[in-house]
Predict the structure of Pimeloyl-ACP methyl ester carboxylesterase.
Amino acid sequence: MDDLVLLHAFPLDARMWQVPGALTPDLRGHGEPDLGTLANQVLAELDERKLDQVLLGGCSMGGYVAMAVLRRAPERVKGLVFVDTKHTADAAEAARNRHAMADRVEAEGVGEWLVDAVLPNLLSPNAPAEARDRVTTMILEQRPEDVAWWQRAMAKRPDSADVLGKAEVPALVVAGELDPLMSPEVVRQLADVLPHSTFVEMKGVAHLPPVEQPEQFASVLESWVTSAGW
């Protein structure tokens, strides 16, 4: 689909997606950390490509950015795809942990310590070696300033239930069965907030279904797009 936009998870980049034809921008922070900055980046890219209305999706952090886009320009969104993300704001402890990681990455840079800190939560123990290698490479190749910026921006994001509850468009919500960060029960709460949602739990995967099982994820996405009549 030439009007499908997919936004990547933390701390990765556009390479996490293996969906032919999708627009997959790399999200880059600048200025005061705020997910609205990334939403504006996405909207500017849509303008540049003359895309008036798109099917907008995101995984984890990418889902938060998609919510920020919806908050700013709901008329640009004809459908939503959320993968292992949630609509609620961070609790105080989670926000503190984000700031602590941001401080450390600024002090020490991106290295194996970051891989060790996040990889166990991103992929299931039985994830293919190829997926593990891809995710490790992406993490190690991120700019420290982006990693720190993303964490600080996510720490201050608002609850998006109000925006999602007004989204009168079809929505696909995908949860990884083994996700230790956001259980299927948590992700389902996001689906329940949306007026027109389809919830799918992918078995045997953790926080990154599009990376662990890209073919199955693409199949889920294609089936839902077909059912929505696009």
